[in-house]
## 1
Amino acid sequence: MTAPTTPMTPPRAAGRTRSLLASLSEIRRSNRLLWIGGILILLNLFIAVLGPTLAPYDPVAVVLTDRLQPPSPEHWFGTDQLGRDVFSRFLYAGRVTIVIAVVAASLSAAVGVTAGILSGYFGGRADIILQRVVDIQLAFPTILLAITVVAVLGSSIPILIFVFVISGWVRFVRVIRAQTLVIREFQYVEAARAMGATRPHILRRYVTPNLMTEIIVLANLELARVVLLESGLSYLGLGVQPPLPTWGNMLSDGRLYLTSAWWLVAIPGLAIMLLVLGFNLFAEGLRAYYDPLERKLAKATEVLPQ
């Protein structure tokens, strides 16, 4: 008599796996924006993590005899005005640009979300003062603030991240505070207060989890904004300084050779466009996926006769 065999995967784990696969399949069918945006983001993360190890040449090595060569099997993306391999510089620049964007957006989200939740839940004089600070900050042009800070403190990666955080945290505060004002009036929050739950417990257990969709969407939009702002500052010569490559200063270096060496501008410009497009599509797809009305419309569209 043989002993009964047990499944290799526990039922609960198998159920979770099937649920995850079903969710991914539903996203792929009903929300192509989220799917396409996720693929573009993963490709750029691959460049950021493994790109420098795949670079065939030193990104700062000057070889004047190879200057301005078009794309070829030896140099996939051609060479620049100093004979540097553009493909190698593209891979290294992707890591710098993406790391700056991720760090700046994460710090902006941490500061802005915390301030927005506390401001919306507790209110009072501190809330009024904080909102006036937010109004002033939003009225100040971001690019002017960045140029002023960089001109005074100098241009370096920590200074750039500081500028992006100072200009980005207010966007989180405004949206998160508004959502917190709504959530704190829900019946389950009032019930938790009536049962004697402490404020930190309510914020951690009931308020913050219901803000995760807004936080993720705002973080994706902030990542796109930081990428564009860093590229713009680097293009103006106020961002990351050479010889460290970023997609922005690669654009700046190639603008003088636009008619004779198109690849110097087209490749980093296309990379910036795809990265920003990926963040924007992912944010829009995530918002639509968690919007009950849009989900109903999408399902209704699927059953319509073709």
Note: The radius of gyration is 24 Å.
## 2
Amino acid sequence: MHYAAPDLIARVTALLPDGPLSLRDLAPLDQFHVGGLKATSKLAALAGVTAGLRVLDVGSGVGGPSRFLAAQGCQVTGVDLSADYVALSRLLAERAGLAVDYVCADALEMPFEDASFDLIWTQHASMNIADKPRLYAEFSRLLRAGGALAFHDVCAGSGDLLLPVPWARRPADSALIAPDRLRSLLEACGFQLESWHDAGDEAVAFLRAAPAVPPPLSLALLLGDGLPDMLASYLRNLQEGRVAVVEAVFRLN
């Protein structure tokens, strides 16, 4: 599995400071997407996040965005396919003093009742899911009428993807689609566009500012020593138009 990380919990725990953890303490590790905590905050503003919303974070990783949303007063459930990521997310939420329900499940078949959520949230997760029609149909099933889908994701551009990147070491790991195709699939599932923003410039600036040597508590714990090469390839893909980064909000009719 591309995101497998042996002894992850033990290695992360050994690096955590004593006492309660803040969102900023954890951001280098748990904001598992380009743009970091700033991108999560921006997407929340675009989506009009308010306290009390029932939120499903699909592909929640090790829980950075879900804990950010919980800190805004939302009732948050995070779903991820990796049992290790779910276990670490629970530990970090407890240390941060935030209540989030983390579930290990396949995003294509999630164990929740229809219309259970006000907001479905996903950041840098769909790039590994090939069956986009089924994924977006599942989003439509789980979202109440009038609810919102907010995503921050990578789309296909022009030309072949240069590897490795954070979400793929092999071509088979990546399942990017073009922005127009993404919009068409969502509209076919009953979603209406509310906000669409090309976040490529912010992504480039973020990657250019990445340290040559990652700090101990960072995404290198999840992706290994090859992280600098992955980020360099990601930057080049963006600069050459091979990928695009999009922030968007859709509303379910």
Note: The longest helix spans residues 83-96.
## 3
Amino acid sequence: MRKRVQIALALLLVVIAGVIAWQVLREREPVYQGKTLDAWLQEYVAAEYQSPVTEETAATRGAATAIRRMGTNALPFLVQMVRAKDSPFKRFVTVVARNQSLIRVHLRTDKEIHNMAVVGFYVLGPIGRDAVPVLVELLNDHDPDVRLSAAGCLGNIGPDATVAVPALLSFLNDTNRIVRFAITVDLGRIHMDAELVVPILITNLTKSNAILPTTINVLGKFGQQAKPASLALLQFLNDENEYVRVEATNALLQIDPEAAAKAGVK
């Protein structure tokens, strides 16, 4: 019993400290229609989980409109979210908090906060261009989750994040498959500097590439700018992997319709 009380008191102190710190942050946080950026982000994420991501619901439209109305005022707060890092003590307290029922409290992990930031930049799109320089800097952060989150934000900004392409390319040969997948997708979203991106993606058109369908898909996004990939793509039209076949077929139609026609692709 005494131990449970001690745990509860410790959690209470952490919650109080968190509330004070969060209140300081909220003083600078933009507000729209009486709700903070954080509240609108939560609403957007909650709505996404309730419906297919391809279906824009009234809830996501409303939250997206609010976040876009905040515009560039939201950027400092979103960047701060990308930088979030849990201390060992906070990780411990978070685990304890989620495994007890004495005090109802939800402490967000740094990964959850990072995800909210990526969502924020997804909603803002090109409005987030002013944050590109600092996000590029964060690609060098020692925390891998911060680096991956920064890359995701840059991808969501789109073509206006073109200056980030050289830095992102350095991650394409990362030993972590999840990192390679995420960076490849982000490069496709930025969709710029084909002369730099396409040659490297072509070198990854190998059977040993665990994210081969994604690599092919992103090459297709570059259209005729990826024409040097045509010959390599032909070998995957009859691949035993269905996903590889489908992506190779679609990409070849986008990149080189003439070569696709000769290969019998319709």
Note: Residues 19-26 have pLDDT under 50 and may be disordered.
## 4
Amino acid sequence: MGRADGWIWLGAALVLAGVVAAAAPRALAPFDPVAQETAQRLRPPLWRDAAGRLRVLGTDHLGRDILSRVVHGARVSLVIALVAVAIAGTLGMAFGLGAGYFRGWVDDVVMRAADVLLALPFILLAIALVAVLGPSVGTIIGVLGVTGWVATARVVRAQTLSLRARDFVAAARGMGAGHGRILFRHLLPNTLGPATVIAALEVGRMILLESALSFLSLGAPPPTPTWGGMLADGRVYLSGAWWLATFPGLAILLTVLGVNLVADRLRERLDPKLAL
């Protein structure tokens, strides 16, 4: 129990650090993340300039402060991930409830659409759509949100199929409750637990997808700092300036690790079988 609590506290601390960086990047970043000082390019971590200013994580190939860019990059990654998960979760809940409750042609349409999306490599689909629509924060949110509903829909559908045969649903139907009341009053609350766990896990996946798109120059356009874009810039200098790619890579690793630790604990809390 103590070890499990230790992991959840570690995950919560990592998530909190990312949220604080995203919420108040200007308060934490020591320098302007887009300001270029070519005279101070490729400076190593803990380097001080002539004015005595400390570059904690060094500078990149254009003299920009890496710590400031990592802090500001947290906002881009977390905002995109959270909004995309909210959109995908909403669509997944709606499609899953509709497919599981109404069945018939509604179920067939939703499940065939899910099969098509599952048959396509998600990252390739996202790359194709972003390349066609043009890279921007709004485009990435829309693409990830609209195409990321499948996991939630399938789980909610399975849960709804089980619940619709329960006595409380039959009783509500016998008392004259309409489809809307049964869906939103009786079925929706009972499917929120699994959907919440999936949403928590999806946040980490969305961060990875956003970083992958930014790495391929399909993310937020320059000069907006993104973790994936910093990795792309730093890969050219791995042999001589390892810090360019190492620190944004660690930011991605630790943030996703924190999200997954919290999601795993959340799954244990919301699943009665695991809580025993």
Note: Strands lie at 47-48, 54-55.
